[in-house]
Design a protein that fits this description.
Layout: E1 7-10, H1 25-37, E2 57-59, H2 65-77, E3 82-85, H3 95-107, E4 113-117, H4 119-122, H5 128-134, E5 140-145, H6 150-159, E6 166-169, H7 175-180, E7 185-188, H8 190-193, H9 195-206, H10 210-224, H11 234-243, H12 263-272
């Protein structure tokens, strides 16, 4: 089985053309280069930056088990290294069926699987006990926990102890706190915008400099607050990247545009991290 993912794993936005009809491939290349140049970490087998490769996690979520497996096959054929998927959404599903969903996808043995718990968006919460069971499935390598109750992650880490899987937060404002209670990293929106400051926080914790890590997290928080659930993190992410010279095009409707009234505060958050002075990525 592939080594469990750890460190700073950026959640990269999808750039679109001006009319929103197609993926802007060149802009996507620039964003990928931006996060790699920022020193993002993924797992033990990540290729050296000089080799031009990082581990790719592809979202293959679907409501039907067969569809999730087929999407995972498509991702593998496209060169992804692992799949990350939420539980089925829309319908409320009992725990035994949620377990069966992940067991079947992992059992298809297409790609290593990261379980993604995001109950606000899916309507199906994975309890700490269920998470611990899932972490012991062959083919499952870790967890992205986007649950606003940090205590749920604490309990999941306790119950999954000894599984060999790495449990990570998916909420930027929880990053430092999550590392302190045993999380092994973050699937991060902020890391797609400011990869180097996020990696710096990780490095400080690994070095045992908790005063420095807390100061770094505090410096990141003015940005992090834009990346929580309400009113959505897509438009703030694209707006921040545009301020850094990485235009990712519009958000697709019905997602809202970034509020004009918040633009100065977002710029101040980036300025506070010292990234507005960086050279624009070509």
């Amino acid at each position: 089985m592939q080594a469990a993912p750890y460190g700073v794993i950026p959640a990269i936005p999808t750039p679109f053309t001006a009319d929103g009809s197609e993926v802007d491939v060149e802009a996507l290349r620039r964003v990928v280069r931006h996060v790699v140049d920022g020193g993002v970490l993924v797992n033990e087998v990540v290729a050296a930056e000089a080799a031009g490769a990082v581990t790719i996690f592809a979202g293959t979520s679907a409501c039907a088990t067969w569809e999730a497996i087929e999407l995972t096959r498509d991702a593998a054929a496209a060169g992804a290294d692992a799949a990350i998927l939420v539980p089925p959404f829309y319908f409320g599903i009992p725990d035994e069926m949620l377990y069966g969903f992940f067991a079947e996808v992992a059992g298809a043995d297409v790609l290593p699987l990261v379980v993604y718990n995001n109950p606000l968006y899916t309507g199906n919460r994975l309890s700490p006990g269920l998470i611990a069971e899932l972490m012991r499935l062959d083919g499952v390598v870790g967890l992205k926990q986007s649950e606003d109750d940090l205590g749920q992650l604490v309990e999941a880490i306790r119950l999954a102890d000894g599984s060999g899987r790495n449990l990570c937060t998916g909420i930027d404002s929880q990053f430092y706190a999550a590392l302190c209670i045993g999380a092994r990293g973050i699937y991060s929106t902020a890391a797609s915008i400011v990869p180097a400051p996020m990696v710096r926080l990780w490095d400080l914790v690994q070095e045992g400099d908790h005063d420095g890590a807390l100061a770094q997290h505090t410096a990141l928080q003015p940005l992090n607050r834009f990346l929580e659930y309400d009113p959505g993190y897509v438009s703030p992410t694209k707006e921040a990247l545009k301020m850094l010279g990485l235009d990712c095009g519009p958000v697709r409707r019905p997602l809202p545009d970034f509020p004009e009234a918040e633009r100065a505060a977002l710029r101040d958050a980036l300025a506070g991290l010292g990234v507005l002075e960086r050279e624009r990525v070509a």
